[in-house]
Amino acid sequence: MNNTIIGHNLLIELKREAQKKRLAGGNIYADKIVSDIFTNAEDIVHKNVVRKDKQINWSQKADNILTSKITGYPIMLLTLGAILWITISGANVPSAILADVLFRFQDVLTGIFMYLGAPDWLHGVLVLGAYRSLAWVVSVMLPPMAIFFPLFTLLEDLGYLPRVSFNLDHIFKKAKACGKQSLTMCMGFGCNAAGVISCRIIDSPRERLIAILTNNFVPCNGRFPTLIAIGMIFGAGNLALHLQSAAVAGIITGMILIGIAVTFIVSWTLSRTLLKGEASSMVLELPPYRRPKILAVLYRSFIDRTIFVLRRAVLVALPAGAITWLVSNVYVGEISILAHTANFLDPVALAIGLDGFILLAFILGLPANEIVFPILIMSYLSSGYMIELDSLTDLQILLVNNGWTWLTALCTMLFCLLHWPCATTLLTALKETGSKKWSFLTFLIPTGVAFLVCFIVAQSARLLGLAP
Amino acid sequence: MGDSSVSHRVLREHFGINTKENQKVIALAGNPNVGKSTVFNALTGLRQHTGNWPGKTVDNAQGIFTYKNNSFLIVDLPGTYSILARTVEEEIARDFICFGQPDVTIVVLDATSLERNLNLALQVMEITSRVVICLNLIDEAKKKNISIDYAGLEQELGVPVVPTAAREGIGLEDLKEEVYQVGLGFKKVQPRKTHYSPEIEEALAALIPKIQDLGWGEFLNPRWIALRFLDGDEKLIDNIVRHLSLKAGQSLNSEVEIAL
Amino acid sequence: MQGAKPKNKSQITLSQIKEGSACTIAELHLEGLLRRRIMDLGFVPGTAVQCVRKGPTGDPIAYTVRGTTIALRKEDAAKINVFMA
User: Fold this and answer.
1) Which chains touch C (3 or more CB pairs under 8 A)?
2) CB-based contact, A40 to chain B, within 8 Å
3) Which residues of chain A are within 8 Å of residue C66 when distances are taken between CB atoms?
């Protein structure tokens, strides 16, 4: 005990002495220490490292093009478009094959259930509900993810992403946010929860919160399939096959640009209201480009990302499918519980260009965005129109029969792009911010924006007589 | 030895690190973008576990590898340019090296920008002597026509220097060997002392004896502490006191346990 | 806050360096965390720095320092005084 008291007094004395020295020296010690360490480093390098002069610096040459005032932006846009195009056109065929195999297996399952004499409701919950939404999620999601994630990881490995930040920083600065926010947005393309976690790279707490609150405006991989499917049906359905993917890639790129524009607007607004403050500094390293290791990229993107995201989607899709089948087949009076709820939501949904079933699907899709479209199709199917869904044409018929117009398609895509984040993202935001208030705003802001934008679009289109 | 290993364990548990008996703890430090996680993955394979540092939203990855029948627990520190602790990441990295008492600290350096990277290595070598330098990206350096005298560098730094190209799997066995040698105390290391300007050396000379009187010396380098006093890093000084009392409190408890 | 005016006539600020030109760091008028961060990256007095490129609107600006490329915002670079090479 005595020891610690003596130690304590000594410590105070020492602190005082050090402070006196610091003040006497004009407080230069801290700087001097850093400079001196670098002098040591210089000395060591000088003795042991030889740099041959004037080697060709490929990184600088690449940067001359990739961050140029003239070509920088077009290349960024083209890269985005190209990745989407490769994803969409590459996913078409495997998606169709997977759907074919999985839905054929559904018939096998039905056969088994009939052979065993299982009750209809059991067959309905397990096969028509759980299995069918699982088949949908896997066939619709797996191929685009298995293409998108490796392509994106490749870009990441190459070292391109910091250049995106470099190019876009001045816009973020105008919004009084950090240029590194664009890096977190890039991560958001894969998964918004990962995007929210990546906001850790932003030093200023204010700017980090802005990045967390707006990350959701970048559509994650769970939302791409919905956007792609709707884009395919209403934007490119009548085009020749080889033009379809390009047209859809164009539509999705447009959607992403809208998402980015909303990100800037919301960031700008937050910096002037809830999160008032000045833009702080940004220090960004531009590491040299490196040739990616293809095998490592494939392995990492497949194991870490594709399997991880797919697993989560499947885990959510199974119960959600079963529940959706139940609520759409349990009748209260003339119509099902699902239809009752949809009818209840209808007035609000119609005002923003959707219908009750669409809005309900988004609500039920809170656990994972991937299941929104499967739920929607299941609810439409159960409400009378029983068709075999093995082509996009059938899907189009189903949607049109349920009253879809181009406006419904557009508003559904916008709502999908802008609406509330999935439950995982919200929980991640809670963990990262440690605040219920900010996590709630992570939910509230996108929700408000989605309703507002869809309302304006739907009402203006109707006012101008462009849509019923 | 028994007592100090108990207190080491306590300090490590404070960082969320639980070691098995005889397991050596390896800290992995380095700048961002130097391939630190490639080295980590290459050493541990799939035997890893990720989470957060206790009470912080900073990634904490831990993994295990076995070499010559010895088990090593490797802790991936946040990628930082410095450990003078101005950000949470830097504070975590520094506190772990300082108070977590790793048996070896591997500092991963980018061979293509050694000058900037050595800044961190020299800072680490001021805290702990048990350092192994992993000189990574030597393949990139070769492409850029940078030639490095590995032996000269090793002699200059006074700690093992292992050239690696972790992405190609080059040099990792050598790295394990050096970690084994240093971690189990077979190889004695004598890290280079960083030289400071005369005015700083003078101030240090006046402070060091008094710091030695504090009796912290057994596990903290007095010269390094004196430097932090000059920095005006009061937070670190308070941290030291907190960790020391943690350590003292726990060894007291363990004595009671033994008595019972 | 604007960068402090260079005291010495031969000094200008880092933000004034043209693309492709080199200079030597004289003194830093940055504060707090940013000052430490920038020094830890090797921007210490006496260091040779080259301006490699500017962003689309002339901001941010990328510099090579000690073999690495670091981008800074213009107003931060304006708080670093340099000697022209």
Assistant:
1) A, B
2) yes
3) 38
Crossing angle (nearest 10°) for helices A72-116 and A132-158: 150
**CA of B221 to nearest chain C CA: how many angstroms apart?**
22
Angle ∠(B228,B234,B235) on CA atoms, nearest 5 = 105
Residues counted in chain B? 260
Coil/strand/helix, residue A238: coil
C12-23: pLDDT as tens digits: 999 999 999 999
The phi, psi pair for B233, rounded to 5°, reads: -85, 75
> Which element (helix H / strand E) includes B138?
helix B138-143
Q: Of the candidates B213, B218, B212, which has an alpha carbon nearest to the alpha carbon of residue B244?
A: B218
Query: For residue C76, what is the domain's CATH number?
Result: 2.30.30.90
**CA of C10 vs chain B CAs: smallest distance (Å):** 26
Residue (of B102, B61, B30, B74) closest to B176 by Cα position = B74
pLDDT of residue A253: 92
**Would you state the pLDDT for residue B217?**
63
Q: Report d(CA A209, CA A177) in Å as an integer.
A: 10
- Find the radius of gyration of the CA atoms of chain C: 11
Chain C residues touching residue B112 (CB < 8 angstroms): 67
A33:B231 CB<8 A? yes
pLDDT, tens digit (0-9, with 9 covering 90-100), for A118-146: 898 899 889 888 898 888 888 877 888 88
User: Which residues, 6 or more positions from A90, have their beta carbon under 8 angstroms from its beta carbon?
Assistant: A143, A147
C41 at B interface, C-beta within 8 A? yes
Amino acid at A264: F
Residues of chain B with pLDDT under 50: 1-3, 251-260
What range defines the domain where residue C47 resides?
11-84
Q: How many C-alpha atoms does A390 have within 13 Å on its Cβ side? A: 10
ipTM for this model: 0.90
Which domains, from first to last, does chain B contain?
2-194 (3.40.50.300), 196-260 (no CATH)
Say which residues have a Cβ less than 8 Å from residue C4's Cβ, sequence separation at least 6.
C29, C79, C81
Any idea which residue has 């999705």 for tokens? Answer: A252
Question: What backbone torsions phi and psi does residue A30 show, to the nearest 5 degrees?
Answer: -55, -50
Question: Cα A242 from chain centroid?
Answer: 27
Q: How far apart are the first and last CA of chain B?
A: 21
Domain count, chain C: 1
